[in-house]
Amino acid sequence: MMRSMFSGVAGMRNFQYEIDVVGNNIANVNTIGFKGSRVTFQTALSQTLKASRSAQNNIGGTNAIQIGLGSQLATIDKIMTQGSFQNTGNGTDLAIEGDGFFVLSNGSQYFYTRAGALTVDSNGTLIQSSTGLKVQGWRAIQDPTTGTRYVDSNQPIGDITISAGMTMPANATTAASIAGNLNSRVGPIPFSMNITDTTSNTDYDVRFVFSKTSGDLVRQADPFSKSQSYTWDVYGEDGKVKAAGFIVINEFGRVESSGTAFRSNLTANDDQLTQEDFSTVPTDGTYYTIVKDENGNVVHEGNVTIAGGNFTITNTNIDQGQRYFVIFGNASAGDEITIAGDATISIPTAGEPRFYESDNPSNFSTLQYESPKYVTAIQMYDSLGNPYSVYFEFTRIGQFGNMQNAWLWRAYTSSGEPISYIDANGNDNDVTGSYVGGIINFNESGRISGMYGVTWNGSKLSVSNTELRTIKFDATHMGDSTVQATIDFTSLTQFSGSNSAAFNYQNGNALGTLQSFAINENGEIIGTFTNGLTDILGQLALAVFNNPAGLNDLGNSLYVVSPNSGLAQIGTAGSGGRGTLIPGALEMSNVDLAEEFTKMIIAQRGFQANARVITTADTILGELVALRR
Q1: For labelling, which of 34, 49, 169, 179 has a CA lying 20 to 30 Å from the CA of 511?
Q2: Using CA atoms, how far apart are residues 486 and 119, in angstroms rounded to an integer?
Q3: 256 and 327 share a domain?
Q4: pTM for this structure?
């Protein structure tokens, strides 16, 4: 028999293998996670008719004479390139972008797949929908004390179960943060007026400037009062104070009361002011008194008692030869101030805050006033998950002591629980009494420069030198003892702009029941609970291999480890060379139809050519048989 006939048979058999592989690739062109294969061939045995000979003496060497005996199958290799992705909109469908395989288990063996069509069975176990094999990964561990869940990927992998009745335990609020802006342009806005002294036909430009003093706090009886008192100064063109007084404005911007300061007509005695320095004084009584010099500086404050029309104010800041303005509590020297001659200004005592030239009412300025208060709220929780609406009220007082941009703040609950304030030393009071709130000072850049506690004894607002930003309130009536939360104010700003301060974080929560879940790109299973919060429930595992093409194909889009694939290296998505996940999508087959059709043509032609070798050999053998005739 002729060697060529056997070579042709071997070639036809090999091209049959190639057609089989091409057919399988094309059949799986729409199989999710399918990896196509390719065929390679190698030569079979060769018959040596003459051995090769090396060069010797004067004769050159000759090559061996060999006749090949056909071809044989070398390999059928898996092509592990990335397939394209198809969006499905199903949250449990997952595609792997990059290297890696999902790990599945039947309880006794691991299987590996790129087909990520997953679902949850009746027991809440995450499975592959086509085979029912259980997806492997790590279930979140719940701290029995805090209820916090976390995933420990150093532990062995196992089944992932997502129970419909899964709950998130309640947690007490211990921290919160607030961010945004507090408007620096609130309260009474300074304004200017031009008035005329008709006796000398002289015009005067004056400017009203408003500030907050301790006397104002006493006058309004409460630092956090809805009605706010302000001390005003009228500056002339020479920069000196021409008059002073106070005005109390309610939350709607209407004047509740006002008064003008008593001005010393005589130059003061050294260190003292007495009734002799004034033409009129208030009636007998005790008054919280503010003394200001002609530069607008407060040189004395405190209680002054007038008895029999007599009083004495002693302070080393009172200098002989100077004239002073004195505001005795709510007492008033009148409702007009005189700048010069008959150039006088009427001060509003009620209603609209309109300041007008006394003998020319058409010349007036209406005070622009925006409430210095701003309130924002946050929901806090006790350890049983009971909610409390806690309001934070901010009141701008501006310049106060050595602070230039101070805001008072306090907290209160809608259900009336008493609030206490805890400083950085763990105390709810200092040497001046119990804290009634806090004070925040902003620097010239609009950023916080200090946060302190404040006390109030009815006549003096004292600022501690200890940081304060923690509140505490009793919650025993709801079944828990206390709620204590530290507030992060550091993201607050104070610029001229609308108020926008709002809480952006608090770490407490009510009891929640699992509502839905989703899987992110790292394979983390994130549950959404009825309390509006999310928590991690588990994490899927991915496996990579040194030689993924060496895995054994079991069908059903499953692979198992082979001696040449290497061991499975299991970890989390996005780590250790593992790919990331695309939720709501599936990886399609990586088969290229154009390439497969080309291979089909090549295989067909190869098979056809080998068949011609056989028929040609048969014809030659026929001629050989015919020789005997």
Answers
A1: 179
A2: 43
A3: yes
A4: 0.77
